[in-house]
Amino acid sequence: MKSAARLLKVQPHRDPCEWARVNRFLPPDAAEPGLFRPERTPYVIPISRAISSGKYNRIVAVMACQMGKSDLALNTIGQVMDDNPVPILYVAPTQKLVTSISRDRVTKMFRYAPSLSRKINEGGLDHLTEKWISGTALRFLWASSATEMSAHPACIVILDEIDRMPEDIRGEGSPMTLAEARTSTYPDALILVVSTPTIEGHSPVWRLWEAGTALVWCWPCLGCGVYFAPMLALLKWADGANKDSVYDEGAWVECPECGHKHYEEDKESLNANGIYLGKEQDARIKDGKTEISGEVYESLIGSFRVSGLCSPFKPFTFRASKFLEAAKEGTEEDIKGVINTQFGELFKIKGDAPAPTEVDALKLDYPLGEVHAGAIVLTCGVDVQKRCLYYVVRAWGEKDESWIVQPGILWGDTHSEHVWEKLEALLVDGEWAAATGEKYKIFRLAIDSQYRTDMVYGFAERHKGAVLACDGTDRRLGAPVGTSNVSVTPSGRKIKGGLTLWKFDKHYFRTWIYGRMRRGPDEDGRWNLSDQVDGDYCKQIVAEEMIAKPSGAIVWVMRQGYRDNHYLDAEVHARVAAHVVNVDLLVKRRSNPPQRRVVMRVRK
User: Are 389 and 413 within 8 A, CB to CB?
Assistant: First the structure.
């Protein structure tokens, strides 16, 4: 009867911070033992209220280290399990972090919160990966345990440090995708994501923040009253300061509006009066009142971001010292770590891709469809899309110099034969002439086989020797191109006599093309364009840029403001075909008979 009476009791409607203020006691070995004080991190309180508001199905918190992220997650667990128990799933990047959170922090929180301790003691289970409170499961998993994650439904999923998790967990999807699947049976489900960001363009938590309300914690300037978002760019120190002297000489945050200097002793007041503002909002203090203009973007994702400079646990001088040390003595990886963990900001890596002016410099005065007088052989590259084939015909001459002959699109559903008949006509019947009257046909055609693979294999079978079915990879190969034998199509059809699949290093060929684009007009091996190519082609061939991660890994990403890269992929395949037939070894004959046959060794 006691248990039944407790279940019928109306629980208070309170957010995690309100629960922690009266129920959570930090253990004696904590940095600040005793009753938990949410006011120490006032920027967490609005996030806590958003969690219990019922307005959002996701809450995203982007913060630096030592900002209270873990306490937000712990308080959420405590409040839910105490007031309205529902299944919770906590996911961290590593087993080590799960062990630390489960065995140390959660166990201690339950032990020192009297109401939770009682519920655990009255029949609950307390294991590393599973705790039961009032008959309700709290489970702990790490990112590599995708199978376990998919096995347990939950009303609340907490993703801790999502940027340190794999983007695809063992081929089963991203952490967010798996979390959404686990909560699909609960109409009032909530996913809480807390993390420090990582690299621009590769930060899951930053993408989630941008997709939501995108609120930023702002301070009111003590000089002009205008609210501003503190950030690394506003942190200043004396000229010539180093990682040691900055502690004596001091560091401060300057208002971007009036230049007023805010010191460490101002931080408590700044945080106490801080507010979250959206991208379209401005605020200032006028006549003692806060005036806010603009609206917050409406979203089911409540997203919040706080600079590491707002932390009450680390002073400005500490953050400045860490940055000065990394900037002077550290590697790029060290600098990235400081920007991410100490300031909660993205690390921006300069990408490498030709500028529009460099593309314009490649254009020569000749019409599309005409073969340049220096050409020896033509290759064609094809990129396969759902409803069309993008192709590029390129002419190659001595010392790897090349000229665009014809870019184009063959429209048609690539699952049907109609569009492949068009490509066959291009390969078999297509003919291009030089100004001298000499005629040229496509010598080799290389085509991407990663999409519509059955159709590509069938086309390559019909034109063995002339068509190269290609499979590009982001993994670095021992050579630019390699081969393997394919005997069965993805649909299970046997290929008579087998088919050669040409594997190539996408990074090698992209950088080769970009490097040739940058050659001067007097340099050998130029990669030339006709002045008749349109703007869409020009934009697509520079749509991707190469960035080097601090770890040393090379990745290619779509440039901001660019959408399609199909012509770049077609050009890459045209170059693969040229590489396979050794165009760099060709020598232009002094007399060029029409319809000549070009004999070459095939390179693997």
Answer: no
